[in-house]
Specification:
The chain is α+β, with helices and mostly antiparallel strands. The protein has a single domain, classed as Irregular (HU Protein, Chain A), CATH 4.10.520.
Amino acid sequence: MIRYVRVERKINTGQNPGTKFLARLFRSNDVSIDQICQEIAESTTLSYPDVLACLKAFEINIAKHVQNGSAVKFNILGAFLPKIKATAMATPEEVDASTIKSVSCRFYPSVDFKRNLAKANFVEADLNIKGIQFNEEETPEVPAP
C-alpha cells in the first residue's frame, strides 16, 4: 500500500488559480540493506552474510558500469543509464570535456515494473499520534537537572 497525505498548495498558473488540495506521497521508514538481506535470507537458503556479500558486489558492479558509461539493464526491475548535461557550443570544435556540466544516473523502470506499480493500492496515512497527548495548558513540568 502506498500511503499519502492531503496538502494545501497555492496554485498560480492555469485556468483556476488559487488554493487547491492534493495528495502527496507519505514516505514510510526507508528500507536498509540490512533489512533486505534479512528478508532474502529468510526466504531463501542463503545465509545473511552470503546475501550481504552478493548485494554489496551488486552495488559495486552497477556503479562501476554506469561510471564507465554503460547502461545496466535488468529484466524485471528496469535499467540504470548514465546521463550528462552539457553546455551547447556554436561549433563542434568547441565541444570538449569541459563543456560537460554534470553527470548523473537515471533509473527507467521495466514495463513489468511499471505495470505492477500501476496496480498499487493507495491509503491515506493516519497522522494521529498515539499515546499520551497533552494540551498546552496540561503540559507536565520537567524538573530542572
